[in-house]
Amino acid sequence: MPAALPAAVPAPSTTSLPDGGETLTSPPPALPAGLAAPLAQAHFGVTCADVEVLTAERDQNLLLRGDDGRAWVMKIANPGEAHAITDFQTAALCHLEQAAPDLPVPRIRRAVDGATRAVVTLPDGRRSLVRMLAWLDGRPLADAPRSPRQRQNLAACLAGLGRAFAGFSHPGQDHYLQWDISRLDRVAHLLPAIDDERIRAAVAGVLADFEARVRPALPGLRRQVIYNDLNLHNVLVDPADPDRIAGIIDFGDIIAAPLVNDLAVAASYQFGADGNRGHAAEFIAAYHARLPLMDEEIRLLPLLIEARLSLTLLITGYRAARHPENARYILRNNLSARAALLELRSRTPGDNLDWITAALEDRR
After folding, report:
1. Rounded to the nearest 5°, which phi and psi values hold at 245?
2. Which CATH superfamily is domain 30-134 in?
């Protein structure tokens, strides 16, 4: 039997999603590759020599190689996503180009009319926004060797994003996002989608602790726009020097939320397949050295990491069952999330806090 939901968490019907869940249920765009080249030429003035369909969760991404040797990513937004949200993501990249030009993030290509995106009608009749971003060369971090120096450099990039976004705001920043840790309770009804009883019980425990400890503290935390998705597939490294961060891609999950959530998300991917806390501790300490955490943020960080791991398991379990044709991509972070969550849940909250405070002390 599935683990029961904590009494404090409302359990909506499993056949429905909370408000804003359209991109979980709306099928991603499916523009045929043969239509991408004329679209790029007409709207962005890019003449393509080759088009390749890339993997994505909610949207559609295509790699376009131009006749001039340059490469671009054509991003076709999920039609279920409000235009204000897509424009928020674009505005964030434009802001970073000015506020943090040294950060290795994609640059927006303007359309022929000077706009940052074009509106197109898909073959199925749905309307969607299309953007063109410069392709960044590099090896996905998920496929690269790891090292302490690399973790330090990656943490420095995340802290740089945090500092740059501190002065940025946009009308679309407060939308509901399923991947926002602050809204963990709103996907609690997806718990039955987790097929492993042990994992399901661990996630149910996180849901209960989130209601008791995190939700009351949220109003007092520093809040700003955050990147919110520093997983190993969104980071590129230099193939010749894997310690050098060559790119941070996919700004589809940016949101206004507590700043510490950004670190919790990133740290949740640092445990590795065996749930190694040491690597996560190195990353947290390196971030703190560049963008210091406040005492309340440190106190909540272990549970926020558990919340992100739980969110990963809840959403990927649901989406993989709903879209089996894309299950391999959807579940790519699932096994490591299970290992990390079991590692943290096997210890007391006090031990998990001591683990983090010890790491921060070691960096002083």
Report:
1. -80, 120
2. Phosphorylase Kinase; domain 1 (3.30.200.20)
